[in-house]
Specification:
By secondary structure, the protein is an alpha+beta fold. The chain has helices spanning about 10-20, 25-35, 60-75, 90-100, and strands spanning about 1-10, 40-45, 50-60, 75-85. It is elongated and about 65 Å long.
Amino acid sequence: MSKFIVTGSYSAAAMKGMIAHPSDRESATRALVEAAGGKLVTYLLTTGDNDFLMIVETDDVRKMLPALMVAGASGSVNGLKTVQAFTSAEFTAAQNAAGEIMMRYAAPAQS
């Protein structure tokens, strides 16, 4: 399963709603991710440029795109960003593969 880190922020309207009617946003987010066939591994509220960070596992990122569209279309979140994450073992395998590819690659001549 591939891992993705998703960050974003809550809209002002969402913040007002959360103050007026506190709710478990992790539970709501988990339901959305699972509806798209993914698994919510971690959900954190953050300070700084983003209000939340989540780690999602999925066997196909194309399945997660509709869930992100639903979240964005709701007007409750903005600035959603998704990046793929790799374990140390996956990165080590990539380094080994890069070494094999490098032997077959000829860089352009530099002047």
